[in-house]
Structures are given as structure tokens and as C-alpha cells.
Amino acid sequence: xSAYHVxxxxxxxxxxxxxxxxxxxxxxxxxxxxxxxxxxxxxLLAKREPSPELRSWAPPASITLRTLDLDGPGAGDSGLLxxxxxxxxxxxxxxxxxxxTFRVLRGSDSEVELLDIASNLAEAERYLSAYPPAELLIxxxxxxxxxxxxxxxxxxxxxxxxxxxxxxxxxxxx
Length: 174
Hints:
The chain is α+β, with helices and mostly antiparallel strands. Helices cover 16% and strands 30% of the residues. It is globular and about 40 Å long.
């Protein structure tokens, strides 16, 4: 499937696999391995950016994945990779967020970025305690999103139907 399909159908927090079809190089040559990893791997869908509206040429929409290197040189490093919806890579929605988990998001409207996925609301609120409450949101993953795997051509990721929570900071006691 294409990056455009991921852009249209995968909710934030979905696990996405991407590949150019080349075999994995030996871990012994770190530079080759790092280059390969930029075109082959998995990551959580962290952001969808629509194409900006300009009068002349406008770049296409894009998706951003939050990756985590699990093996090879630099294991444990995470990073963001952005792909145009017209990328020549192959993409696959491996898994959508589990129902009852909570997305920790930064931004609003079309400028939303996934920071983390929490297994429960209390864990998500603890994550928010390190940030000003106006900057971050918590959004619950619903069963409807997981059901979208069963429905062709339609995304069940409708932000308007999902409850959002803003974290409240505890007040200091004088």
C-alpha cells in the first residue's frame, strides 16, 4: 500500500511498516545500515500534514513516523522520519492503537503530533505533568478505529467523536 493510504486511513499511533524492498545490510557497516533504516523499518504514525495551499507549486501531503531502532548500531535511538504521500516506498498498517489506550498529543486541529501512547488515563496524565497543559491533549483510542481494519475505503479515525481531556496541573498549597 502507499503512504497516501496510510495518510487517509491510519489513526495516529498506528504501527506502520515501510520498505523499499532491499535486503538488510550487515550491521558491521554502520553507514550502510543507517541509510537502509531510513527506507526500511517500522514506526508509530506521529503526524499527518496536509499539503499547504499555495498559488503556485505546493508540496504534497506527508506522514511522519516516530521510529525506534531495536537492533544494529545505535540500538534504542528514536527519531522522526517524514515521507511524502507520493513516496516510492511500500507502507503497511501493521496495527492500530488498542481500544482503551490514550494518545498524548501536542497541537490542535490539523497540526496534531503524537508524543506517546499510554495504557490508561492516569499514565497519560502523568506524562502531561511535565508540560504546560495548554500544549498537550489526551485522546482515547476507540473500538471504531480498530474496526476500520475490517472496512475498506473508510477511516474510522474521526477526532470529533472522541473525547479529549486536558490535563489540569495540581495547585500549589501556600
